[in-house]
Amino acid sequence: xxxxxxxxxxxxxxxxxxxxxxxxxxxxxxxxxxxxxxxxxxxxxxxxxxxxxxxxxxxxxxxxxxxxxxxxxxxxxxxxxxxxxxxxxxxxxxxxxxxxxxxxxxxxxxxxxxxxxxxxxxxxxxxxxxxxxxxxxxx
Length: 139
Known about the structure:
Layout: H1 2-8, H2 12-23, H3 30-36, H4 48-59, H5 62-65, H6 71-83, H7 88-94, H8 106-121, H9 127-138
């Protein structure tokens, strides 16, 4: 991955794939690796393509997103809250996997719901994000 990064660092589309590849990896430390990527120089939360490449790809990585300790849910909620003041439409789209909390085993669903409640409780959450979160909690 490091050699690939050095070779293709200047190509934004390839770097989107590089982020998505890591977010979709099936490695024991995938969540920890993904949690470090927002601090990486190629990642920019202000860039919707980068945000989607990392965050959406991770939420689609079911084995690691639904990790028993809830770290995947916290990662998603943290990124959504970070992104919301910059791009409310993207944050509202990216939060949607947490809205599936009723479709997973109860212990996981409770952790997903907890993250939705944490987002809803944040002061200054955008109308777009708040509407999706409230609908997810009510529905």
